[in-house]
Amino acid sequence: MKEHLHPHADPSRPPRLSWGSSILLLGLVIGLHGVVLYSLLRSEPASQPTQVNAPVPVMLGTLVAPPSPVIKTEPAPEPAPKPAPEPAPKPAPKPAPEPAPEPAPKPSLEPKPTPKPAITEPKAKPEAKPLPRPTVKKSPPQTKARPTNKAVESLSTVQHSLSDSSQAEKAPKLATNPVPEQTPPPVVQPRLDARAGNNPPPDYPRAARKRGQEGTVVLSLVIGADGSVQDVSVERSSGYPLLDQSAVKAIRHWHFHPATQGGKAISWNYLQPIKFSLTN
Questions:
Q1: What is the distance in angstroms between the CA of the first residue and the CA of the last residue of the chain?
Q2: What is the mean pLDDT of the chain?
Q3: What distance in Å separates the CA atoms of residue 142 and residue 19, rounded to the nearest whole number?
Q4: pTM to 2 decimals?
């Protein structure tokens, strides 16, 4: 008979016998014991008294099938808890649609004349007013009492002393009276040379025109006695460095009629505005 092995039996253990195989094996063991006992009885000599052997107890064993191996089944691992679903993010508010840009104006085909900065006349500084002449106050004359006959000699001595003291008082008063100063002649302000070649207008920077920059810059000038510009600085900016630099660069080479005082040329300071405009 073929032995039927348990499909999950351990290969290191002996195979498990079926019930039919166990009964057959038990019968073979009993028969083998009977043959051995019979051969022992026949092999003893006849002369010997027959000895009655005590019955040999026959130990009959019952083959018990080994218990089927218990296959431990490991419990299935518990599934990991699923994380709670995160709340869906709120959609960001859509930005308001930007207004459509206005179409850029098409440039006209006709070329526009290049604007030139306007040159305004310099502002004259106020002339110095002459100082008022000091007034000299006259003291009222002193009246002297006529002396009597009894006091002629005493009054004569007193008059000499009074005359001496009055002369001494008048001397410092004459010295302290200020001498009126002479009023200086007025100053004639400098003016631009009428020849255009001496005073070319400042260049209008191309970058400033493209950006639409306009404004008026006021420059502080020092005009020498020969009419040349000895120093120039920005007194008030136009708000755009390109325009300020162009005005300073041009005026450094300008020529003026110098200021005069009493018919004599002098050095003078004054303000010169320069206007940059795209419409003129």
A1: 128
A2: 69
A3: 180
A4: 0.38
